[in-house]
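Lab manual, section 2.4: Encoding a predicted structure.

Procedure: take the sequence of the chain (730 residues), apply the prediction step described in section 2.3, and record the output as C-alpha cells. A sample record is shown.
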Amino acid sequence: MWFGGTNRPIAILAAAVLLAAATATFAAAQDVLPVDTSIPALISADSISYDENLGIVTASGNVEISQDGRVLVADTVSYNLRTDVVTASGNVSVVEASGDIVFADFVELTENLREGFIRDIRVLLADRSRLAAASGLRTGGRKTVFRKGVYSPCELCRDDPTRAPLWQLKAVEIEHDQEEKIIRYRDAWMEIFGVPVLYTPYFSHPDPTVKRKSGFLVPTIGASEVLGGTYQHPYYWTLGPDQDVTFSPIFTSKQGIVAVGEYRQLLPNGRIDLRGSGTFGDRIDSDGVTSEDAFRGHIDSTVRFDIDETWRWGIDAQRASDDTYLRIYNFSSPRTLTSRAFAEGFDGRNYLATNAYIYQGLRATDRDSESPIVLPLVDYNYVSEPGIVGGKYTLDGNLLALSRTDGRDSRRASVGVGWELPYNGPLGDLYTVTARVQGDGYWTNGVDPATDAVNPGGPTQSDVTGRVFPQLAVQWRYPWVRSAEGMHQVIEPIAQAVFAPNGSNPDEIPNEDSLDFEFDDTNLFSLNRFTGLDRVDPGTRFDYGLKWTVTGDGGGYASAFAGQSYRLNEADVFAQGSGVEDKLSDIVGRVQVRPTYDLNLLYRFRLDKDNLEFRRNEVNLNTGPPALNLDLGYISVTSDSTEDEFDDREEVNWTLRSQITRYWSVYGGQRIDLGENQTRQIRIGAVYQDDCILVQGVVERNFFEDREIKPEDAFFVSIVFKNLGGFGNN
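Recorded output:
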C-alpha cells in the first residue's frame, strides 16, 4: 500500500528508505541523498509491529520498501526511536535508480544516518563492475571506509564463478571521502589471474562523480637514436572549473629535459588553448653543421572568441625553432606550419572574413625568408534570393596584401559579379545559364615577367596592372531514368559551353594562390579550374561527359563517370603534363562501387587523349568483414612536366585487419614507394580487448630520412585497465 504525509509511524518507516540511500553510499561511493518523507513510499512486508515499551518499529518477512526509484529488500528492517538507530538484516539488497545493486548481511545506521556500519558488503555496479568488502564504516557523514576490499570490472567465469577474474584490485583499506570526492587505497595490490603482480602502499584517484582532478597521468617510456632513453610523465592541474594546465616534461638521456605544457581555459564567449615546448639540445642545421645546446621548441595554440551572434575572431599560432624538431620529439610531422589570425561574420546570405597568414616550411629546400606574409586577406561573398524568372545573383570581393622578406610582393583587389539561371525543359532536360564578370587590379614589386620564381635572380620590376575577365556558360543535362525489379538506373549525359576571352593571364600578374592545380572529374565543369584568383581559365571551351548511376533496393550502389574538354585555342597558362595544356584535354573519370557494406571501391583516373595511357590512377578500397578486412590505397601519377608539382609518383598503402576471435585482433600494413622501389613504412600490431582490459602491441619500421632523422625501428606496448587507466612504452 502507499504511504505519504507526516504521520509519525509512517515517517519512522520512511526512515528505513533512508537506509537504502545510505547502503548505496557504501557501494557506489556517492554522497547520501536526502530522502523527502513527503514523497509517497510503497512498503510491503509480511508483518509490521510497534513495541511501545522499547520504542522499536519492525517490518519483517519479505520486507520491500521503494521510494523515488530506489528499492530496499531485507528479511527484517527496524527503527529504534529512542536511540535513533536503523537496522536491516537478512539478505539485504538495495537496487539504485542508477542500476547499482548492493548486497549485505547486516546494516546499522545512527545519528541521522551520519554514522553507520555494514557487514559483508557486495556491490554489482551499473557497468557490471564488482566491489566486495568484509565491512564498511561511515563516519562524520562524509567518509566511508571499507575493510579488506576487492574491486574488479571483469566478468566472472561462467563455468567456475569462484575462479579469480582476469585482474582485480585488493586493499587492506579503501577510504572514500565524499567531501573531497577522492578515493584512497592503503596497502593495495593488483592480482592478474589471482597472482599478485604489483603492490603500492598508497595511491588515490578521484571518485566517479569527478570529471576533472589534479594528479599524475599515464607515463610513457621510449627510446630513439637521437634522444636516447625517454620518459614522460604528465601532471594535470585544475585551476578552476573553467581552466587547467598540463605539464608533460620529457626526460631524455642524450638531450636533457624538454619542457612541454598546455593551458586551457573555457570562457562564456570563447576558449583558449595554449600548447608549447622548449629545450636546449643538439641541432643539425640545413647546411649539415651541428649546433650544440641550441634552443629548440615550438608553439601550437588556438584562441576562439564570439563577439556576438554574427561575428567571431580567432588566432591559430604554429611555429617551430627548426625544421626537424617536431618529428624528432614525436609531436607531429607536417610539411608546413600555418599561423593565422582572423575575424569573420555570417549574416543571412552575406559572409565577410579578414585573415592574416604567416607560413613556415619544414622541408630542407624551404627558405623562411621567401615564405609569404599575408596581411590582410579580405573575402566577401553574397548570394541573393531567387529573383526574376528564378535567377540569383552573386557578388564576390577580395583584397590581398602579400609580402616577403626576400622576393616579390603582391597587392590585389578583385570583384566578381555573377548571375545564374536554372531552367527545366519540357522533355525533362535541365539547363543552367551562368554569366560572370571578374575584375582584378594588381600592384606588384620584385616581379620578373619571364619567370614565376618568387625570388628571381635577374632584373625585376614594379608594376600596376589588371584585367577584366567575363565568362558565359550554358550547361545541359538530360537524365534518363529506368527502373526494374530491385534496381533503379540513371543515365545522364552532361554538356557545357563556356565562352571567355583568350589570354587574360599577363606575365606581370604573379601566381601566388593558383599553383596547386589538378585536372580531374571534380573540376571538369568548373568555370575556373584554378584554386585561386591569380589565374583564370581563358578561352572558349566545350566540356562533356556521361554519368551512370544504379541503386538497389537493398542499399547497393554503383556509379561511373567519364568526361573530356575541348578548347578552341591552346592555353599556355596550363603547365605541360597537366592534361589540359592542348586543345583537347585528357579523359577524366571515376568509378564507385558499393554493392554491400563489406565492399566500397572508389577509382579515379586520367587517360592520355592520344594513346589512352593512364596518366593518373587513384584507388581507395575497403573490403571484407571484420574477420578479414582490407584497406588499400594506390596512387600513380605520370607526367611529362619538369615542374615539381607534376613529378611522377607511384605509391601503395595497405592495411589488413583480422578479428580472429572475440577478443583478439591482428593487423599489418605497409607503405611502398613503387617509383623508387622502396618501402617507406611497415607496421604490425596485435590487440586484445575484453570487458575489463585492453592490451595492444605494435612493431614499426620507418625508413624516412631527413638530416638528423634517420630510419629506425619502434616498438610500442600499451595496457589499459578499465576504470583505472593504463601505462605504456614506445
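Check your result against the sample. The radius of gyration is 36 Å.
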